[in-house]
Structure formats: C-alpha cells, structure tokens
Amino acid sequence: MAEPSTRDASASDLVKALSEQTSRLVKMEMELAKAELSEKGKQAGIGAGLLGGGGVFALYALGALTATLIAALSLAMDTWLAALIVTVLWAAVAGVMAMLGKSRVQKSAPPIPEQSVESVKEDVQWTKTSAQRGRQ
Questions:
Q1: φ and ψ at 113, to 5 degrees?
Q2: Scanning 30, 54, 94, 136, which has its CA 20 to 30 A from the CA of 88?
Q3: 25 with 123: CB under 8 angstroms?
Q4: Nearest of 110, 112, 108, 109 to residue 36 by alpha carbon
C-alpha cells in the first residue's frame, strides 16, 4: 500500500506513519547499540586473554628475578635475611600497584555505546526541528 503524501494525508494517517517510523527508528537504534557493544566486548575479551597470558609469563620471570636477587644478596649476608629483604621489596611494589590500580578503576567510565547515543541525540534533534517546521 502506497503511503499518501504528507500534504494529502489526514491527521490519523500522519500519526500512524509517525508511530511506525518511530518504532522502526527505535528498533534500528537498539540493533546499532547491540552491534557496537558486541564488537567492544569481543575486543575486550581478546585483550583480557592476552593480558592474562602475559601475566603468567611475567610471573615466571618474577620468580626467576626473585631467586637471582636472593642469591646475589646472600653473598653479602645470611640467606634468610636476603630472602626477607626481597620479600619486603616485592610487598611494597605490590602495595603501590594495588593502590594505583584501584584509583584507575574508580576513575574509569562505564562502557557506553557512544555512536548509538550520538545517533539518538541527532534523531531527537531532527524530530524536534521537524515538529517545529510542521507547526508553522
């Protein structure tokens, strides 16, 4: 069925067309938001996996470095004292990193589908402008 032109359409036809177009617009915006969040989620998952793998190997390297530091310090002091010094050093590093990490997490913004939000804002502005033109 062909839609009547806006000049020839009755008020009920215009309201019906507006309702259909608004419904279609909302569905399209939801699909855009879903696709955008899905892509961001996929990229975050891959990045998290790589970070986890890197963390495992960094842990191995830290173990080797710890053994090296203890062995080097044990040349100048008892082994137990060398181990204690290295343990305190690593505890201090862990504490500083934990505080910095907590601060960064608190500052981070929640994930928002920016393109969808911007598109909805544009749609609202267009609708307002069209409505004002229609009243004149």
A1: -75, 90
A2: 54
A3: yes
A4: 112
The pTM for the full model equals 0.45
Q: Is the dihedral angle over the CA atoms 66, 69, 72, 77 positive or is it negative?
A: negative
So what's the pLDDT on residue 81? 97
Residues of the chain with pLDDT under 50: 1
Residue range(s) defining the domain that contains residue 42: 12-122
Is-contact 52 60, C-beta < 8 A? Answer: no
Contact 120, 29 (CB under 8 A): yes
**Count of Cβ atoms closer than 10 Å to residue 116 Cβ:** 19
Total number of domains in the chain: 1
For residue 133, being part of any structural domain is answered with no
Q: Which long-range contacts (CB under 8 A, 24 or more apart) does 2-5 make?
A: none
The answer to whether residue 3 sits within a structural domain is no
